[in-house]
## 1
Amino acid sequence: MLLDLSPEALLTTTRTVRKRLDFERPVERETLEACLETALQAPNGSNMQLWRWVVVDDRARVAELAAIYAEAIRDYAAQVEGTGFYAAGGPPGMDRITESVMHLAENLHRAPALVVPCIAGRLEKCDVFMQASLWGSILPAAWSLMLALRLHGLGSAWTTVHLNREQEAAELLGIPYDDYTQAGLFPVAYTIGSEFRPAPRQPLSKVLHWNRWA
Ligand SMILES: Cc1cc2nc3c(=O)[nH]c(=O)nc-3n(C[C@H](O)[C@H](O)[C@H](O)COP(=O)(O)O)c2cc1C
């Protein structure tokens, strides 16, 4: 069943969900596939559809991928420790985000499914034009997936931290690392409740430039 959300509500309340993912409730493959079908309607360069989607719902493999994710989070936390990144003066609400990030990392193995969107090519080898063209050929679809999940009462969290260990994940999942770049890792689960609010963001006036930067 689809949630009764206006287009505006869908676009403004599709949040990163970490603590309100229902890890006890299974997600049907048909529902996931319906959401992925919607995602495939996204724009992509020359309609070449260079995307691939690896959905992991085998419990042992979810656990192995979650372990790679947890290691990557540990690496990242060690990297930023003492840099003052999370200290006062960092983005507002950072402590809460960090706690939520750690919660997801500790519970990722319980997610009913993990989705890894992939795009053809090794993006670090491309110039900016090709990078933009290739990222732009997977990220709109990935966001459409998030929106479609929300419509179906599901939630997800956009994550990229495992990409510091992308090769390990590629080996685990059989993704041909030399030919495909992973774009992220998205846990999928039904959400606990379906009410979500618009996020705090900087005012538009701070980030908008009409006609000229300054
Ligand atoms: C490119 C990108 C990478 C992100 N990587 C991670 C991640 O590795 N782990 C995580 O828990 N959240 C990650 N997030 C989620 C952000 O922290 C989250 O989007 C942000 O706090 C704003 O919350 P909102 O999406 O609900 O507005 C990522 C989001 C984006 C867009």
## 2
Amino acid sequence: MDSSTILIAGAGIGGLAAALSCQKIGRKVRIFERAPELGEIGAGIMLTPNAVRCLEYLGLGDTLQVAAIEPTDSIYRRYNTAEVMMRAGVKDTMRDKYGAAYYLIHRADLHSLLLRAVLANDPNAISPGFRVVDLIQSGASVDIYFENEGSASGDLLIGCDGIHSDVRSSLFGPSEPQYTGQSAWRGMVPADDLPDTVIEPGMTSWIGEDKHIIQYPVRQGKLINYVAIVVLEEWAEEGWNRPAPIDEVVTSFSDWHHDVKKLLASTPADNCYKWGLFVRDPLKTWTVGRATLLGDAAHPTLPFAAQGSAMAIEDAIVLGRALAENENVESALKVYEGTRLSRTAWLVEHARQATKLYQRVHGDKSKERAASVDEIYSYDAVQCPLGVS
Ligand SMILES: Cc1cc2nc3c(=O)[nH]c(=O)nc-3n(C[C@H](O)[C@H](O)[C@H](O)COP(=O)(O)OP(=O)(O)OC[C@H]3O[C@@H](n4cnc5c(N)ncnc54)[C@H](O)[C@@H]3O)c2cc1C
């Protein structure tokens, strides 16, 4: 392998965005993905303008517009009466205000458009079935080692291997996740199985006490995606692919509005999943020499602010820019990390605090929401000043 190659562990949304950003500045990348097949789980993702701005910069604006939906508005409803507690325009306001759209998209569709773009630049860029388990740095290169056998060498390593990152453990030692006291169900319901009252053209957040649900359409409105989050004392495992019986989520929301109950009860039997929400203490640094972290590997977050993928995509842009402006790899990685640490730490903390917005039925929701939206959506990873903090 060419010694100037950039090695990436993980072909999730973060790894693919990082690859594209490095290809954009003319660098050769090689992604090693643990899974034997490439893909994403069946769930929706909300792409806020700060993320869309980055994807447009990577040349994905047109494909994104075709694959995604622009929601009309964002509505907060009271859990039992459906009374509107907050309504904010999305489709007609986001581009004007923040210079980029707000999109709803199926995760598999976002993953596939990133994947196609990376492979169009280099058909050999990705190797599935390779789990990176260790690394050794020497002089001007980094060697990575795979679980089965074999190794690869390159100029630098970007660990984009998610919340259970092996690269993070190699660099900083293992870390214990802490359960947050919140658990979640997710499901996708065919819109044809639902009455019109349940289907709204925008994003609907149902606000309850210690519980909330977010629902929105994906795939031209053919599927309604939901995430239902509840306070639950105990949970054992991390990870969000454990199938769950639909009765559990239906029972948990049995005193909610009939539209909510209809949505949950209509979940196809093989499409309901439950998982516990875990956090880790934030790292003070992500970088050692020629190796760094990106996305959930660097700053795992709660899903309340819909910023996990957005942060990974922002990281990818800043990393590409830092590499373009600094010939010395170690300096470039310091600039990348220095530019991103405070933004991501703030967003992780903001997501922790967002339970108050979604899981309290009292308070002025318009005011609470407005307090953070500008800071999140107006961040410009494409043009922000780069620097070491
Ligand atoms: C319910 C829920 C809703 C969410 N909604 C949103 C949303 O609306 N908007 C938003 O921006 N974010 C959202 N997020 C967050 C978002 O899903 C994550 O932050 C994002 O997927 C992180 O991407 P990543 O590439 O860093 O990690 P991952 O998506 O976890 O990808 C890591 C990849 O690395 C691979 N891998 C793991 N270990 C190794 C190894 N050792 N070697 C090689 N490969 C490896 C994995 O197989 C995987 O492909 C949500 C999260 C949840 C739980």
